[in-house]
Amino acid sequence: MTALVINDYLGGEMVWAEAKIPDGRGISHYFNLIDEQEVDLTRNQFPEGTVIPRGVEKKKQYASTKDYVLSFPVTQQRYLLLKQQVEEHLK
């Protein structure tokens, strides 16, 4: 959700990577590339030693990674809730 809201405010490209946590599991992770710089405000949610490779597009038949992510109704609801909270905070 954070990557979606950051994309709303700062633009750039939303990307995906499979974060490899120390126990060997892979976890889907989204973040942003803005002017070729990674902007990942949620990287610290992963345990120390997690490896997050460079992000890539994950859009399937959609125009962008963001459109793909928002194609899931539950994700869209969570995004709208966070976006509303951010907007209220910025007033």
Characterise the protein shown here.
The structure is a single chain. The protein is an alpha+beta fold and 91 residues long. It has one domain (2-90). The chain has helices at 2-10, 65-69, 73-90; strands at 13-20, 26-34, 37-39. Strand 2 and strand 3 form a beta hairpin. It is globular and about 40 Å long. The two termini are 20 Å apart.
List the helices and strands and how they pair.
Layout: H1 2-10, E1 13-20, E2 26-34, E3 37-39, H2 65-69, H3 73-90
Antiparallel strand pairs: 1-2, 2-3
Q: Over the alpha carbons, how many angstroms does the gyration radius reach?
A: 14 Å
How would you describe the oligomerization state of the chains in this entry? single chain
Strand content: 15-25%
Terminal Cα separation, in Å?
Answer: 20 Å
SS class:
alpha+beta
Shape: globular
Topology, number of strands: 3
**Largest sheet entry:** 3 strands, antiparallel
Number of domains: 1
The number of helical runs is 3
Low-confidence stretches: none
- Give the strand order, joined by hyphens, for the main sheet: 1-2-3
Into which percent range does the helicity of residues fall? 25-40%
The average pLDDT score comes to 96
SSE ordering: HEEEHH
